[in-house]
Every structure is written in C-alpha cells, then in structure tokens.
Design a protein that fits this description.
six-stranded parallel sheet, 563 residues, alpha/beta, single chain, six-stranded mixed sheet
C-alpha cells in the first residue's frame, strides 16, 4: 500500500484556496501511484479557525468545499481534516474530524476525542468529543485504518480518561493515521517524533503523522510529517518549514490467523534523524511567520523598521529581508539628543550589508518642542527623567507610523522577550507596529540569531555589523545609559524569566541563578507581573517557545496574588 503525506500550507478561512491545495496534492499523489493521500487536521478551514466556527455560514461553506474535494477521490482515496456536524443533538453541534473521501463521495469520518484546551488551544469551546473510536475500512485498501486526530496521540501527556489509539488498535486497526495541526516551538519536531515512537511501540502499530506547515497569526507550523514503525523507528521524515508531498510504501503480509498486517523494513533510530540546529529553527520559523503574515493577509507590499544601530532592530531587519526580500524593507534611523555617532553609522552599515534603503529622520527639533511644552505644563527644569526618555521613543513611533500611512508599509516592532517581560519598553513608542517579530525571543537568543546570520552568509558577506553585536546594549534615551544600568545582566534576567514563564514557577519557587541574589530574582518577578498591562497593548507576537505572550498565556492585569 502506498500512502502519500501531503504537508500543505493552508490559510485560515480560505476555504476554496485550501480545497485547491488539497486537490493539487491528491492529483500529484495519484499520478505517483499512491493509494491514499493524507492531509492535515482542519486542512480545509485552516488552523485555528477560532470564532469563525460560530459564523452562521462558515461550516456549511466548508462542507460544500469538502464535497467539491470529494470529486478528486475518484482516482485516489483521501483522508482530510475538516469540520463535520454531530449526528445527534449535543451542546456542541460540530466535530473536528478526519474525513474519508473515496469513489467521489464522503465515505465516513472519525472525529477527535481529546480536545486540547490549554496554552494556545481552545477546542472545547467549539467542538464535541468523538463517540466512535473504531477503525475504518476503505474500498480498495487492504488494511483497516485507525484515524486519530492530532491530540488523540498525545493522551499520555495529560490525565485524559481515554486512550484513543489503544482503542483503535484493540479494534483491529493495522495502521494509525494522525492528521495534525501541531504548532511549532524550538525543538518541537524532536518531541513529536519521540512521542509518536512511544505511541507506535505501545500500540504495536505504525503511525503516519501529517502536519500542516506555515504561519497563521501568532502560530507557526513546521510540518515535520513522518512515518514511525511499530518498533519506534523512523521510516520517513519530511523537511521542516517547507510544504511538500512524500510517498511511503507500506508492504503488507498475512499473519498466521489470516489477518493482514504491515511488514516494514528497518527504519532509522530517533537519534539518527538530524533536525536543523535550534538557532536555525528559530530563524526559519520567524522568517516563515513573517512571510505568511504578509502573504496570507495581502498586506502592504513592504515593511518599515526603526533602526537604532542596536542588535534587536538589526536582527529584525535581517529576518524581514529573509522573509520579504531587501526591496520590500525600509529602515529609518532616528537619532536624538543622546544618540551616539557609532549607532547611526551602524544603522547605515546594516542597510548596506542587507541591501535595504535607510533614511535619516533627526528627532531633535521635535523633542525640543516637547521640552518647551513640558516647561509650560510642569515647570522648567533641566531633566524630565522618564518623561523625556519616553517621549523620544514616542516621537520615533509616530514617525514610523507616518511612514506606514504614507507608503502603505507595515511597522515591525523590534522589542525582545526579555524587555517585554519586565516592561523595558515604551507604550506607543518602540512597541508600535503590526507584528512583534522578536517578542518571544530572549535577548541571549537574539545574539545567537545575529551570530548565526553572519556565520551562514559567506556568499553575501557579513549581515549584521560586528560592532552591533559586540557593543553594550543601550536605549540611548539618556546620557551614558546602558541596559545593564537598569536591568540585571541578561544571562541572569533570562534565566529567572524562563523559570517564571516557560517553567510556570511562582515567586517563592524561583531558584536564583549563579551570581543572582534572591532579592534580585524577586525584583525581576515583580516587574514581570506588573507589566502585564503593557504586554496586552503590544503587537501580535510570533510564538517560538512553549509559552509565548499572547493567546497561550492568560493572566489578569488586576490582581493581588504575590506568591
């Protein structure tokens, strides 16, 4: 039996476009001699459709596209993720299903049993759980298939009361087919393969895992579709961050009791499957997220970035160029009264190395007008402290938004996760924009991205000026200002933050890293809590970790819990 794995890049809500992607994959698979093509979870709606599911025509429109796709099953059987209506009256009237199309019609379906409702997932809000967990038989295919949608293979990671795969295996399934929409974070592909290998060995059945690829809002999907043998070895592993079609031949054999099974050859050990390095995954995931954010919304043809000469804006510009092309990215250097000459030089040098146009807009005259206004409002004095620091950032934000309006460009915010965590940013200033590219990237990893960009750009020359990487970071909003005057060293800051955010530790549970006092660790935690209001007002953050700011981390702004 030949099975095709169709790793496609659907767009949420583009029902007809997604159906055409599925048709193209089915046609290519049929031409290659495959018996069955498997597409990802909710391939027709895109994932996650969220409250589009509650619009009165959305599900019906998707079902119409599903019936149109069924015509392609005259040549090849299709398993596709789609929304179906429940067969009986229940509080939730729709299900997240793997639908079988064959002989030009909808043959049957099996719906998702385990509905994840944690982190970025909220499926119990919309879907009813499956009632039928029996294998399906498709005319022309010799083996009964166990259809397990995404989370149904993750039962061992949470205290679920049901093991769908065990039930499918006990019911006679010879193969587990797992259409998925499994979002990426750094290292996720390794985690998935290890989990699927455990599922395969526990059930004694091979697993065909098919994931979507691409960006939808904050989520990036990395693909990484694979086939795992019943012994836990990898029979096939598709590339990360790329759409594609792969075909695997699964030889059958008849057992002593007369039943058919699979006779797979020796596969690769999990350790022998080499993924891109973590920093390369980070770069490729962010590039894909930026590209699809523009492409899938038909956004303005270009981006604008404020270039300070610092590492965050430099890395953001590099990623934007990788995603969109240098001709679609513009930088604006906006020196102020506390900007150093080398920062302006570094901003323009970055532009030369990336091949982007950089303009200069001095903010000094506008800043002076504000100081005169402050003198009238608050009384004349030499230093307005944080007020005069923030107004510089807000002037720059206004200039970037003016460029957005005048030239139809999207502003890319450049702040990193370390700064967003502790509020080391200015509302309506450096936080303006339509997309926060580095909002889920700690400062330590921003440096890693910069070095990676230079290390892998031999044919193009250095991408990010070495001085930008090596100089101490500074907001340059006051005389002799450096980040480390206002914040702990970034290695300490990032360690404490990752314990609190990704690790979910409370204040009392934080373990101060070497060189950090308990007092400093507690102060970092307090700043994290106090700046939730800022993070609610920042642009959409591309998710790269297991716990990003956004839909997967929901904390109250108004609360008094100090534990």
């Amino acid at each position: 039996m030949k099975i095709a794995l169709a790793q496609i890049n659907p767009t949420v809500g583009d029902l007809a476009g997604n159906r055409r992607l599925a048709e193209e994959a089915a046609s290519r698979a049929a031409d290659a001699g495959a018996d069955l093509v498997v597409l990802p979870e909710l391939a027709l709606t895109g994932y996650p459709p969220m409250d589009l599911l509650e619009r009165d025509r959305f599900v019906d429109d998707q079902l119409a596209e599903l019936d149109e796709l069924a015509k392609a099953s005259q040549r090849i059987a299709i398993v596709v993720g789609a929304v179906v209506r429940t067969a009986d009256a229940r509080p939730k009237s729709i299900e997240n299903a793997a639908v079988v199309l064959a002989a030009g019609r909808r043959l049957t379906h099996r719906s998702k049993t385990l509905l994840p409702t944690y982190d970025v997932f909220d499926e119990q809000r919309y879907f009813a759980n499956a009632k039928d967990r029996t294998p399906v038989e498709i005319p022309g295919l010799e083996l009964p298939l166990g259809l397990a949608v995404c989370e149904d293979t993750w039962f061992q990671t949470r205290p679920y009361p049901v093991d769908p795969v065990a039930e499918l295996a006990a019911g006679g399934a010879a193969l587990i087919v797992n259409p998925s929409a499994s979002p990426w974070h750094v290292g996720k592909a390794r985690e998935r393969r290890a989990l699927l290998a455990d599922v395969a060995k526990r059930s004694g059945r091979p697993v065909v895992f098919v994931n979507q690829v691409g960006g939808n809002d904050e989520l990036v999907f990395d693909g990484g579709s694979c086939v795992i043998g019943a012994d836990g070895t990898v029979q096939l592993a598709m590339p990360l961050f790329e759409p594609g079609l792969a075909i695997v031949e699964l030889p059958t054999r008849r057992g002593g009791d007369g039943t058919l099974g699979l006779a797979l050859g020796a596969g690769r050990a999990l350790a022998d499957v080499v993924d891109p390095s973590d920093v390369e995954q980070l770069e490729r995931g962010l590039v894909l997220g930026i590209r699809d954010y523009f492409l899938k919304q038909n956004l303005p043809p270009g981006a604008v970035i404020g270039l300070s000469g610092g590492i965050d804006s430099a890395v953001t510009a590099h990623l934007a160029v990788e995603a969109l092309g240098a001709d679609r990215v513009v930088g604006i250097a906006m020196p102020g009264p506390f900007s150093t000459d080398h920062s302006i030089e570094d901003a323009f040098e970055l532009g030369r190395q990336l091949g982007i146009h950089v303009r200069r807009a001095d903010i000094g005259p506008v800043y002076d007008v504000y100081r005169q206004l402050f003198a009238k409002l608050f009384g004349a004095r030499d230093d307005y402290g944080l007020t005069q620091q923030n107004i510089q950032s807000r002037i720059r934000g206004a200039i970037l938004m003016a460029c957005s309006n005048e030239e139809n460009r999207l502003v890319l915010a450049t702040g990193n996760k370390s700064e967003l965590s502790v509020g080391y940013c200015t509302l309506y200033g450096d936080t303006v924009g339509g997309l926060a590219v580095l909002g889920d990237v700690y400062k330590r990893d921003v440096y890693a991205l910069a070095r990676h960009a230079n290390r892998h750009a031999k044919e193009r020359g250095e991408r990010i000026p070495l001085r930008t990487i090596e100089k101490p970071p500074s907001a340059e909003l006051a005389a002799d200002q450096f980040d480390q005057n206002d914040l702990p060293p970034y290695d300490i800051l990032d360690d404490v933050l990752s314990q609190a955010i990704e690790g979910g530790k409370s204040r009392a549970s934080i373990v101060p890293p070497p060189g950090c006092s308990d007092e400093v660790a507690q102060a970092i935690f307090r700043r994290l809590d106090r700046n939730e209001y800022k993070r609610r007002q920042t642009p959409l953050v591309l998710r790269t970790s297991e716990k990003a700011f956004g839909g997967g981390r929901r904390l109250p702004i108004v609360h008094r819990y100090t534990g």
